[in-house]
Amino acid sequence: MNDPIQQRVRTAVSAAADKKAFDLSVLAVTELTSIADYFVLCSAGSERQAQAIADAVVEKVRSEEGIKPLLVEGTPPGRWILIDFGDFIVHIFTEDTRRFYGLERLWGDAPNVTSEFTGEAERPRNARRKTTTS
């Protein structure tokens, strides 16, 4: 993957996954809107976890890709945190907020390209990844 935008998205996805984000989806919206090429959507079990995911995404993209977000919205309370990097936007939701706003439905025509960024086969949108606690 030599495309710099795709590499930045991969870095953001990796940071979210490292903080146990679940229901992670990457939508290619470039053909549908001029605001971004990709939307990264993920869920958190609590507002505190959403904030931790957001902090990790911002820090990892800054340190590894050398870019800072243009805008960060939604902190606090952290039910929906939006991080705009220009070419892609990261949306971090608590579960109930994600269901309420339903961005996957609103952007239903956008191809889901999650597997290109996670290396995993695409999971159904409602399948929550099980995590274990140590």
Describe the protein.
The chain is α+β, with helices and mostly antiparallel strands and 134 residues long. It has a single domain (4-116), classed as Beta Polymerase, domain 2, CATH 3.30.460. 37% of the residues lie in helices and 22% in strands. Strands 1-2-5-4-3 form a five-stranded mixed β-sheet. β4 and β5 (88-94) form a beta hairpin. The chain starts with a helix and ends in a 16-residue tail after the last helix. Mean pLDDT is 89; it is low at 121-134.
Query: What sort of overall outline do the alpha carbons produce when their principal axes are compared?
Result: globular
Output the helix-strand order: HEEHEEEHHH
Number of structurally distinct domains: 1
CATH superfamily placement: Beta Polymerase, domain 2
Report the total helices.
Answer: 5
The proportion of residues in beta strands is: 15-25%
Compute the average pLDDT: 89
In the CATH hierarchy, the third-tier topology is known as Beta Polymerase, domain 2
Question: Total strand count, please?
Answer: 5
Largest sheet: 5 strands, mixed
SSE class = alpha+beta
Distance between the termini: 34 Å
Show unreliable segments: 121-134
The side-by-side strand order for the widest beta sheet comes to: 1-2-5-4-3
CATH architecture: 2-Layer Sandwich
Helicity, as a percent range? 25-40%
Q: What is the CATH class designation?
A: Alpha Beta
Radius of gyration: 14 Å
